[in-house]
Design goal:
Elements (H helix, E strand, L loop, with lengths): L8 E5 L5 H10 L3 E5 L3 H20 L8 H6 L1 E4 L2 H5 L4 E4 L5 H14 L5 E4 L18 E6 L8 E6 L5 H13 L3 E4 L9 H17 L5 H9 L2 H8 L2 H7 L1 H9 L13 H8 L19 H24 L3
Parallel strand pairs: 1-2, 1-4, 2-3, 4-5, 5-6, 7-8
Antiparallel strand pairs: 6-7
């Protein structure tokens, strides 16, 4: 059975949106990493993204400037799956969220992997345990990262029923060694924890907008000035403790809240999609980004995320 000390090489399969940030964190954690992508163009973009992100980490004093090149050198690139996973102790799959693509990749892995390699998937919406070959389920876990993966601390972990608890435990230990905040779930549910919470919030957001109760700006200001910063200190369940479990019970008993029954696509969302108002990528979403530099906005977002997660880390290490 593998221990944390046995995991010296990690294969990151997929070099798109999530791959470079995930590879970066494994490399910061001292592991040798090989990233796989089919495309040379994607590989070159991933290299540039990775190096730039390491420079930003150095600017934020999260790593030493003198370590940037050393960490960058721990990440290699391969254009075949076989080359990427050769000698790997841990595999992090992070390819496109497409059932057929994942089926094909897991079929390739089934043909070449040893029986003690941990196979972790970053899937966000699929039950990947239905796609992995049955004989490989004893090696399978989900390690679900959040974008941008080098900045957001959370990684949700859940093992296949057939996998030993030790595989889940060593996955958690590996993520902790790479500076992440893993949460080990007791069993699989689609959406995990954070995505399910966000989907509940999204339902209420679109109910309020579709029915003209407030504007997107009102919603953002309300949550930023109330429960979102409070949650950095108390979370959700501890907030109930501090407010009184009996108060929350009374809210349910008195039916103080009737959730919206949304079964169709919200009208606001339909309209925005049809108008190609897709957010920052098209220059307009709920907010208008026309005339603004996209890279500057992303850099400003990242700087602010660094600050808030530094505070969050401080509070998590010294909870109330």
């Amino acid at each position: 059975m593998k221990t944390l000390n046995d995991i010296k090489k990690v294969a990151v399969l997929g070099a798109g949106t999530m791959g470079p940030g995930i590879a970066q964190m494994f490399a910061i954690g001292g592991r040798e990493v090989t990233m796989w992508t089919r495309s040379e163009d994607t590989r070159e973009k991933a290299k540039a993204t990775l190096h730039k992100s390491l420079e930003t980490f150095a600017e934020e004093d999260l790593i030493a400037a003198s370590d940037v090149e050393k960490i960058f050198a721990r990440v290699n690139f391969a254009l075949t799956v076989e080359e990427a996973v050769k000698g790997a102790d841990f595999i992090q799959e992070t390819i496109v969220e497409n059932k057929d693509a994942k089926l094909e990749l897991f079929r390739q892995l089934d043909d070449i992997l040893a029986d003690d390699v941990i196979i972790a998937s970053n899937t966000s919406g699929l039950n990947v345990f239905e796609l992995i070959p049955e004989r490989r389920l004893k090696q399978a876990v989900i390690a679900h990262w959040y974008a941008p993966p080098q900045l957001i601390p959370l990684v949700e972990v859940v093992k296949a029923e057939q996998a030993p608890q030790e595989f889940a435990d060593v996955t958690v230990q590996l993520l902790e060694a790479c500076g992440k905040t893993p949460v080990l779930m007791k069993k699989f549910v689609r959406g995990y924890i954070a995505n399910r919470m966000q989907m509940c919030l999204n339902q209420e957001v679109f109910y309020l907008l579709d029915n003209g109760y407030c504007s997107p700006e009102d919603i953002d200001l309300a949550v930023k000035a109330s429960f979102i910063p409070r949650a950095v200190v108390l979370g959700i369940c501890k907030r109930i403790d501090f407010g009184g479990v009996d108060m929350t019970a009374n809210n349910f008993r008195n039916k103080s809240y009737n959730p919206p029954n949304i079964t169709e696509m919200p009208e606001v969302l339909k309209t925005m999609e049809s108008n190609n108002e897709l957010g920052l990528k098209t220059g307009k979403g709920f907010y208008d980004y026309s005339g603004k530099d996209k890279q500057e906005l992303l850099a400003k977002r990242d700087k602010q995320l660094f600050e808030i997660f530094k505070i969050a880390d401080k509070f998590m290490k010294d909870p109330v």
